[in-house]
């Protein structure tokens, strides 16, 4: 029996299926060279990632028991002991990076917002998340699951919903299904609008998604502002529609 075995933490369920682990690692692009694994736990993904022999591979782990376990079983592995959400990726990595992980359910959205903040640094993400989160990120306009993360991530990344993962491949088994998604940076350097305002507009629009935009984003618009999109709801607008609306409001 292992002398150090981490407990479940931060809403994380540890993957125990080796085939799924290999499939997740194989989902990273062939040209990726600098990789950060978030929340490695007992290293099920880690040992497969080590075999890829990346130029720079590190893991970020906040749980002290997991860090102790990884230190024993992967003595050569560079471990960043701390909260991924608080890391300065520009200091840690000089170039572009890919992020991979079995993301803890209760911070998965925060991880993707962190990716957005570092969109000029993070070229690719392969993550296992709760199935409904993956569906939300990959959703198209008009879908009930289309929302803030859908629009913001799709503005800068191509999204691939790769595969669904059964509950029984985890320890302990979660009560919901999981899914693996891949985000690949698109060619958009800058949106054709005020990007800070774009973020605010999207969040404000979806915070009252049942209302038409005329009412949902009233606080962001000049009193005399008029636009055909105002008669629609947030879920009906594509990324380019939101960009156009942001342009028009801030014109």
Folded structure, characterized:
The chain has 251 residues and is α/β, with parallel strands linked by helices. It folds into 2 domains: 14-185, Vaccinia Virus protein VP39 (Rossmann fold, 3-Layer(aba) Sandwich); 195-249, Orthogonal Bundle (Helicase, Ruva Protein, domain 3). The chain is 34% helix and 20% strand. The protein has 10 helices and 9 strands. The protein has helices spanning 18-26, 44-51, 64-73, 89-92, 108-117, 131-138, 148-156, 195-207, 213-216, 239-249, and strands spanning 14-15, 34-38, 56-61, 79-81, 97-102, 122-130, 157-165, 170-171, 178-185. The protein has a 7-stranded mixed sheet with strand order 4-3-2-5-6-9-7, sandwiched between helices. Strands 1-8 form a two-stranded antiparallel ribbon. Helix 2 links the parallel strand 2 and strand 3. Helix 1 crosses helix 2 (44-51) and helix 5 packs parallel to helix 7 (148-156). The radius of gyration is 20 Å and the shape is elongated. The protein starts with 13 loop residues before the first strand and ends with a helix.
